[in-house]
Amino acid sequence: MINARAINHLGIAVRSLADQHAFYADVLGARLEGIEEVPEQQVKVAFYTLGEGDHAVRLELLEPTAPTSPIAGFIEKRGEGLHHVAYTVADLPARLAELKAAGVRLIDEQPRNGAHHTRIAFLHPKSTGGVLTEICEDKG
Ligand code: ZN
Q1: How far is the CA of 115 from the centre of ligand 1 (A)?
Q2: Cα 58 to middle of ligand 1, angstroms
Q3: Which of 57, 72, 107, 133 is 20 to 30 Å from 41 by CA-CA measure?
Q4: How far is 69 from 32, CA to CA, in rounded Å?
Q5: Using one digit for the tens of pLDDT, what is the confidence trace for 3-21?
Q6: How would DSSP label each residue in 82-93?
């Protein structure tokens, strides 16, 4: 059991961060925390936060920066929309080893760099009931 502690964020695939800003900021009232590029994943990421403190929820909007980006492939196949659910865990490498030993299919066998000073790894939707699942840990 990897003992997920919270939903860290929801990942949403979009064609254009700029086009979606009005909905998230002006309609939902979410705060834009920042935009950063993650070259390894060929995405530009905007983080929005709703609510305060322990009840805060983060949304990660993902815009592809190249046609070969996994997010571009996702949008091509399924359109814009919910892309993944990310859970906070402690000691990510140990959790990945446990999952692998338990027969869970991993997309990332080793942690990689995510946005927002995190280390992340994706689990294959075939092992998670069809939901692309990210587990992540703050780098501190
Ligand atoms: Zn994510």
Answers
A1: 8
A2: 10
A3: 57
A4: 23
A5: 888 899 999 999 999 999 9
A6: EEEEEEE-SSHH
